[in-house]
Design goal:
By secondary structure, the protein is α/β, with parallel strands linked by helices. It has a domain of 196 residues: Spore Coat Polysaccharide Biosynthesis Protein SpsA, Chain A (Alpha-Beta Complex), CATH 3.90.550.10. The chain has twelve helices and ten strands. The strands form two sheets. The chain has a seven-stranded mixed sheet with strand order 3-2-1-4-8-6-9. α1 runs parallel beside α11 and α10 packs across α12. The chain is globular.
Length: 349
């Protein structure tokens, strides 16, 4: 049995190495001398308690170019629009979604109203550095460009979620580096208005509340449109993970729900291997005193995960302790995420 475990852990280490090489293969974007004009679309639904970071980031932005900012109010009832109007100094416009409720419909409204061909979508609960918009404006607006999202959290549950999200970012940009896009995040995503409107005619997913980003990426893939990525810190946005267990599960179940409708062989294989890997670690830990090889395999797994954290830009002083705790937390978290719960209500129709 120890040989089987060794094979699984070695394969995992090799997969991580391939993903890291993929990240390093990403082209250097944002180096053009020309500054492109963007329309930034920010759909929101009842974000009054989460939008302060975005407002502050826009107010502190050093961008001096013509960047159109469009907020799309998706049937909010909590005064988010009033908060934006009272506090945001950067020029903006708020458009009400008067059609069917849902993030996808709001994005479509924003794209239709955009005056620039290059579109950047952001979530309302993110923040960014002052040079963010300036860096975005230097990216050649070609096809779709996936941009990085980094999470920050307090408390043990939030930090466990940060580790998971860092791993997802490495998968996202590692696969992009090999021209095999698997994941993206609508919280920070670039695409062309003309491409969107052309592909939107064939979209059949508007009846599915979640997955605006993944369904759009799938349309770009199906049409053989360019999909690239920028892993530059200057193009990164920041957001917080849920700090409590149940809200975290509901959010991740929402993410899992959109993956169900776009399940590919690669995603199925990767997800299955991930589940097997976590429970093999528990098996190795329980048998560490029966064969010393299990000890070294555990060390290999932890060192590989630490390397992933480093590439995912989430390595902290307490990284080693957190990674060790993560090994025992994640298998049971995976079980819990599959247990029936009420779906998260944000963006649900």
């Amino acid at each position: 049995m120890v040989i089987v475990v060794a094979i699984i852990f070695v394969v995992y280490t090799l997969v991580v190495f391939i993903l890291v090489v993929g990240v390093k293969r990403l082209p250097m974007l944002g180096k053009q001398k020309e500054h492109y004009k963007y329309t930034v679309i920010i759909p929101f639904h009842n974000e009054v308690d989460r939008i302060d970071g975005l407002i502050n980031s826009l107010n502190q932005s050093d961008d001096t170019q013509d960047c159109q900012i469009l907020f799309i109010d998706d049937h909010s009832t909590d005064g988010t629009s009033a908060k934006i109007e009272e506090n945001l100094l950067y020029p903006f416009a708020i458009i009400k979604n008067e059609v069917k409720k849902g993030k996808k419909h709001s994005i479509r409204i924003g794209v239709t109203a955009a005056k620039h061909n290059c579109i950047l979508t952001l979530d309302a609960d993110i923040s960014f550095q002052p040079n963010f918009l300036n860096s975005i404006g230097k990216i050649l607006p070609k096809g779709m460009v996936v941009l990085p999202v980094q999470t920050y959290s307090k408390g043990l549950i939030g930090r466990m979620a940060d580790i998971e999200f860092s791993f997802l970012q490495v998968i996202t940009f590692g696969s992009l580096g090999w021209s095999k896009p698997l994941l993206c995040n609508g919280a920070n995503l670039i695409f062309n208005k003309s491409d969107f409107l052309t592909l939107d005619k064939d979209r059949t997913d508007y009846n599915i509340a979640s997955g605006d980003d993944m369904f759009l990426m799938n349309q770009f893939k199906s049409a053989n449109k360019s999909i690239s990525g920028s892993y530059d810190l200057t193009t990164t946005v920041y957001t917080a993970n849920p700090q409590r267990f149940i809200p975290l599960l509901k959010q991740r179940r929402r993410w899992l729900g959109k993956m169900k409708n776009l399940l590919s062989f690669d995603l199925f294989l990767g997800g299955s291997f991930l589940i097997i890997l976590q429970f093999v670690f528990i098996f190795s830990f329980l048998n560490v005193f029966t064969d010393s090889l299990f000890y070294w395999l555990i060390v290999l797994k932890i060192l590989t995960d630490l390397f992933l954290l480093f590439i995912g830009r989430n390595l902290s002083v307490n990284g080693l302790l957190l990674i060790v705790l993560f090994q025992f937390w994640y298998p049971f978290y995976l079980i819990a995420i599959l247990y029936p719960l009420n779906r998260e209500k944000r963006w649900m129709s």
